[in-house]
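> Could you send the TOD1/MUCI70 glycosyltransferase-like domain-containing protein prediction when you get a chance?

Sure thing. Input:
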Amino acid sequence: MQATMLPCFKGIRRGLIYLRVIKLCRRENKVSSDDGGFRISVEDRDFMKTCIAVVSTCTFGGGDDLYQPIGMSETSLRKVCYVAFWDEVTLSTQEAAGKTIGEDHMIGKWRIVIVRDLPFADQRLNGKIPKMLSHRLFLQARYSIWVDSKSQFRRDPLGVLEALLWRTNSVLAISEHGARSSVYDEGKAVVKKHKATPEEVDVQLTQYRLDGFPDDKRFNGKKALAEASIIVRENTPMTNLFMCLWFNEAVRFTSRDQLSFPYALRQLNLQNINMFPVCTRRDLVNSMGHKRKAKPLAFRDLRIVSTRL
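Output:
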């Protein structure tokens, strides 16, 4: 983290939290190498450096199919990169299904970037790297739009930036959760749906209670709980720092990022957030659902990174 980013801690009131965030971000930096945490070809790295605005997605472990984006303008096709990150398992799965990457590295409108040496055995955590740390992958990008692999992006990205960021003077736009507004209620739902073990969730939420995280339902008048299948942001020092903290919480506890989003938001007191309603999210994407379960990585010499203090 560059020294020029340190003045952005205006919203942090306690020195211990200030110190903790810096330490977490330095640990996250171990995951984010020059390749952003993965081994990426020089040709792909050079291409990614040309992106000023990017729409990205990923599929690791062969989990989901690749859904072509629709609804974009010719201007967006010229100015916006569409990048899909695949690992070698997904590459093999897609090739077996007859979907091959062209000599131009493209499948439809997506530029396919193959990543190797994934740092985590849990594919859900590997997916958090392009989802939350796009600023470490697209070093020159000013704007980024993340779309989960279960969704088909169906709007013009420049129009989305205008509607969700520029008109609202926001630096981050993310959907309100459709069913709940309390992180503690969400924890119960995560356990009930077998998305994480009761022990994992209990450790996380017990720590949040000890840190003074309240059971309130609102943040700046909006739901504190988010549905993070689409994330629109300007890559400012403050939003990059927020995504860094959010990533570390996902690694430190469960990978269910709905649980850690409101905590990270409160810790940094991040302002200029557009928590848009569920109907807007449904207008942005077609929800296609997960096609198959991602295959976990075999345990080998993995670069497992602890984010505990």
